[in-house]
Amino acid sequence: MRFDDNxxxxxxxxxxxxxxxxxxxxxTALDSVDKLVNFRxxxxxxxxxxxxxxxxxxxLDDVLVSVYRAPHxxxxxxxxxxxCHASPYIVSVIMQRLQRAGCRIAEPGEFTRRAFLxxxxxxxxxxxxxxxxxxxxxxxxxxxxxxxxxxxxxxxxELRAQLVELASLVELELDxxxxxxxFADREKxxxxxxxxxxxxxxxxxxxxxxxxxxxxxPVAIVGAPNSGKSxxxxxxxxxxxxxxxxxxxxxxxxxxxxxxxxxVRYRFIDTAGLRESDDTVERLGIERSLGxxxxxxxxxxxxxxxxxxxxxxxxxxxxxxxxxxxxxxxxILNKCDIxxxxxxxxxxxxxxxxxxxxxxxxxxxxxxxxxxxxxDLQEAIEDCGFGLGSAEGAIVTSARHxxxxxxxxxxxxxxxxxxxxxxxxxxxxxxxxAAISTLGSIFGEITTDExxxxxxxxxxxxx
Length: 463
Ligand SMILES: Nc1nc2c(ncn2[C@@H]2O[C@H](COP(=O)(O)OP(=O)(O)OP(=O)(O)O)[C@@H](O)[C@H]2O)c(=O)[nH]1
Ligand SMILES: [Mg+2]
Fold this sequence. Notes:
Radius of gyration: 30 Å
Oligomer: single chain
Strand content: 15-25%
Bound molecules: guanosine-5'-triphosphate, magnesium ion
CATH class of the largest domain: Alpha Beta
Number of domains: 3
């Protein structure tokens, strides 16, 4: 792909509307615009930039053109945005005329790619632009916005600078190795290294929240058949989304729907009731339930207040045997509106209840049918820590950044091991350099065409 030519693309969605914007950028982009538009005063090429000019595209439309001069534009090149009436026909004619006037149609993400190549933003910021466009909740918007504005990259740059300092200490040792000068303080080195490793680990850990917030926090609703899972999904969504019936085994396949609570998008997943079954289709459904249970961030484990303590104990055991420590589980005792008389009064039952409580701890009492207790449940979900309310520092949302962090963590672990084993400086230096360059790849210090192609091809045309 060349970057010394002019590109053009519609920058607003296709279809009719009030206005559309066609974007142009490149060394002689403004000359191309002048060939297309008759301005009331002057030309685009004469403009000093940051100017909105009124003009006419003869026989087609009246337009408003925003003119930007390099380097003060999104791409860092001379650029213009042509605002016309939003008719697909008008946009297509403007595009044709621009191509005749010396522009080619931009590749997806090429405007942002040029912005990156011209130093207007780093790679993480460019990825933040795509995330910002895709953000559909306050929390995902907040993360994308911080990334686009560069606050996120700053943390990685600081971390990288810390490693460069470490490397310079090691290089110092290498420089003096012939005269056998004992190292610049190995203890200082070890403590700097530990700090950097801690930082890498906490950034890595932030990915589980960041990824969930970006893509919607998965919340699996699991429990025995007939415990009221589908009723609970419907109650949360305030919509008849899933089929409810008093026949155990009603839900076969998973049903998924998203909802925003307190600025965070959650993906609620209703699942097939967990039980032993000979029915092939039901068994497949139960396998899916277990899969959703394992991959969810939050689990709503539904017990049935009308079920016996033994039934609930069995269901709680099944669920708890699948849980991993980083999952949040909210135990729910449903159907509290028709709960029978206190089962603790029946001989033999208190022991079962005690066993049950040892697994479930506090259970939230609820009636999915009447809605009582639903607010407490929403609060409990909001308290699971995906709200970012007090979160500080960078939160990793990108799989690419996460895998770079994992790689850097491995490199640093090797440096640490080498330090512990009193290995020589050149071995330390090699792994350190690898970690430095891996971290640099996050904000695009070192890139390949292949990587850039992969990142920017996911953008839309005109961005
Ligand atoms: N009284 C009362 N009935 C409820 C409540 N929640 C669910 N039910 C009833 O319990 C029955 C089963 O409800 P579902 O929501 O279909 O249960 P489920 O857990 O999805 O069942 P499966 O899909 O078979 O696993 C239905 O008759 C519901 O009306 C509740 O809070 N109170
Ligand atoms: Mg169901």
